[in-house]
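Question thread 4412

I'm putting together a teaching handout and wanted feedback from people who do this every day. The idea is simple: show students a protein as raw sequence, then show them the structure tokens that encode its fold, then repeat with a second protein so they can compare. Below is the first pair exactly as I plan to print it.
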Amino acid sequence: MAISYNTNSFLCITVLLLLVPINHSLNSDDLVSELTILRARSTTGVIHLSNILLIRMLSVPVPRPFTLLVFFDSQKLHSDSEISLPTLKNEFLILASSFHANNPANNKKLFFFEIEFQESRASFALFGVKSLPHGCLVSPFATDFERDSIQMESSDFSRHAESMAEFVEAKSKHTVGPIHRPGFISKKQKMSIIELALILSLFLLKKIISGNTLLHNKNTWMVGSIFVYFFSVSGTMYNIINKIPIAMVDTDDPGKLVYFYDGSGMQLGAEGFTIGFLYTILRLLLAFVTHVLVHEKNRNIQRLVMFLAIFVSFWAVKKVFYLYYWKLGFGHIYG
């Protein structure tokens, strides 16, 4: 995304350059101490670079005792999904925190900066930034930040923090080390979850002692056993392990899905679920007849339900055999 400057930016650059002392009176050690303090105040370890701070660094004689890695940001472009500035900025912060964690004794040799376009247009022009995303590495010997800085290419942003680390290590003598990404849950959130779990465990312990939990309810075990049986006979674990799809696109008609594959060389997930459903119906009817129907005193109801159970069981078994022979190419036998 291209950015533009107005004449005020160039006038500001001229004024700022005139403010740089000719005799370079600022001591480099003082500047390093100042940058270290600013970095310590930052929660991310990245220093916010302003026009004044940049001019102070320009006033230090070369070679400077440190290297700069600058990320150029613009709040107005954060809504542009094509350049993904918020994501890249977050990756830059991860890069900085990883470097500081891996190099605690050498963190005064490389400083990370982020600069905002709306606040520091003059600094953007001083670096010669024409478009975003943009990042650059400024060596200790750089006098002209536009000419002497090493700019990041698009490939240096491709793999986010990892590719940025490779850029730093390739263009400088600094080693970033492994990238440490933050977990999905912060330390405070972990502590809150642990505290909540301890509180709930007391109530759970009370229910376990009194025998008033779902695990003490026979209906829970009954439903669970049905699910276990269904997933066992339907080959669900096989489908998950081998990443078998539920259906596939019809080669003759791309707008149509095929749920049953004609041939023994492959089986789709829908086929396994169908067989599992038929087996489950058969077993549930058998359980109903042997455990529930026997307690019915009316003989006529018993006979009627028995005939229905036999009819449905026969239909389910017939469908299982039909699908089996259809897969083998003999579906006409049970058609």
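The second pair follows. I'd like the answer to focus on this one:
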Amino acid sequence: MFHQSSYIESKVLLFLEGLRRHPEAFKISSASLISSLSMDHEPPFQETYENLLHLPYDHEPKDESVFMVEECDLPMIDLSRLDLERGKCIKEIARAAREWGFFQVVNHGVSQEVLSSLKYEQTKVFRLPFKKKMEDDFLNSSAKSYRWGNSKATSLKQVPWSEAFHFSISDISRMNGYKSLRYPPCPFTPEVFGLVPHTDSSFLTILYQDQVGGLQFMKDRKWFRVKPNPEALIVNVGDLFQALSNDVFKSIKHKVVSTRDVERFSVAYFYCPSAEAVIQSCTKPALYKQFSFREYQQQTQKDVQDTGCKVGLSRFLLL
């Protein structure tokens, strides 16, 4: 058991050490989110979802639920301690991944200059006209890299009030001057989310959010607001890591609450395997059947098309 746990922890450690030693990887391969203040820049949210905006909202108590959510500080990991207190730092990372599913890292090697430059590049791209961003060859990126809303939504709780560009590493070399690369104000908050409650279909996710905040995660059946920290990157466990660890580490449900007057920028880097990589639990008895990352993506896409929502790991539980 100790050997297997050490193996899982080493995966996280190798990834975070790679980030610390090669921060440029974070800069060039971030998948990210959004912006824009002028109407010709924004996706047509109100027009597209006009009918849904008049339906009864079947989520949570409207105003009180947003403003009464408790703010918390996530566990903080100082990656510089990997050099001198490696064992202790590894244990702290494992504990945070096990008990929280989320943690923050500082002294990660990504400078404030890089993060400021990143937001500047985001702003330039998202200020472009909506029609321009919708062009098939925009930025020479892969098809459907620009996404907004949810065309399959049947209620407001399924509508993410956000636009996003999703780039793979292979897209970067073709991006025509935007190699540095990402939620608009929502007049209907808190009835709609910036991002609806979900878990990430990744191994690990690294997130940088601006000082507007809005990120919330669920712990012990309660929602908590993540206090923005300009010096920190947020790391969270994804579905694939939960399956690999046989539920030792948790992929936690999280969401972004939209704001009425202020746009929010964030950048997320999703650490994922190749499509053919096979995911299987590392301990026995296994809770999940073996599956490839491609199979997981296909099942997620099918669920979203059929129901408007992601179902996730429960589809792969062994009964």
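Top answer:
Good format. For the second protein you could add a caption like this: The CA atoms of residues 88 and 173 lie 39 Å apart. Residues 1-7, 25-38, 59-66 have pLDDT under 50 and may be disordered.
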